[in-house]
Amino acid sequence: MTDAASVSAAAASVVRRSAARLIALLAAPTRDIPLAEDVLADAVERALLRWPVDGVPDNPEAWLLTVARNRQRDLLGGAARTRSAPLDEESVMHTIDDALEGIDAIPDKRLELLYVCAHPAIDPGIRTPLMLQTVLGVDAAVIARAFAVPESAMAQRLVRAKRRIKLAGIPFVVPTKRDLAGRTSAVLEAVYGAYALDSTESGELAFEALHLAMTTATLLPDDAEAAGLAALIALSLARVDARVVSGEYVPLDGQDTALWSRPLIETGERMLTHAFALGRPGRFQLEAAIQSAHDSRIDGGVVDVRALVDLHAALVAVQPTLGSRVAHAAAVGRADGASAGLDVLEAMAPAAERFQPYWATKAHLLEAIGAPESSAAYARAIELCDDPPARRHLERRRAALETAGPD
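Structure for RNA polymerase subunit sigma-70, as requested:
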């Protein structure tokens, strides 16, 4: 008999790692995402009852999949018996069995589900949140904060979108090349969102995003932005082991390059070279080029700060988001002095009241010029920070200011 705490931890680990994959696989033959979520939840409940008695199975993911599949078959069979027009139950069950032949099929089904969520029948405004939650496993509350929407409103919109997939009969397939262009940008946006929203020390969700980005780039070898996104994520994830050391956040410029992953950097550089060779520079390629400039330190190189300013300026021209504008201000501050960076930063002040990177950058630049307002800026950045290691780093910076006092 296994203790309940160990079983709960094992179940939580499987769900965290594999829930989105399993839902994608279970939903493929029926187009019913809520049903897939329900039967997986039933399987997890069953696991919490059985695993303490029987022990955690050697392949817990396959165990959950089998139990969920059987529950799905029962529910579909019941639906068939209660319909006035008979459902072709045997055909549906064969389809389920074909789709569930092996765990190895799951990554392809996730990619299919990404394209399902990007179907023209789905409201463009909910496509990215739907992909983030259903395919990539991002919590609805996190998505709501990222999109500045109340959690209850986001939950309702997600439920409606999932219902729409079933009612519209949207097929669970990667669309033909003719239809890919209209959906790929939304898919790339969701994959980028998963990478950007991952605040875990391990970068687990970001590595899932890298897998999907690489798969999409392979599927679409002539799509420059697909290759650019794969390059961006690889080049950034190359530094994940150096970002937090012994539980403490390490700023990019202070990271030990010996901890960076050379294979990931080489992969990113290869994808970036391929993207630029296609001759259509875009947002993700520019972001990847920025990461490449930082990664040049791995061989003892010096970051070209002027090139960084130019790349950030180009990114703002293509994608003038708060994030790109704040990053540009930080680059200007590094190249031309903190005061110049603050001038760029203050131009966006009204719109950035709740944007944490704005306050963190402002605090750093104010500290650099010795402005007393830096302490208040750090306090605001700390208040808005969801990443514990980064928050502790900001708290130490603010405490150091308070200890130093006025000159």
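The domain at 321-407 is CATH 1.25.40 (Serine Threonine Protein Phosphatase 5, Tetratricopeptide repeat).
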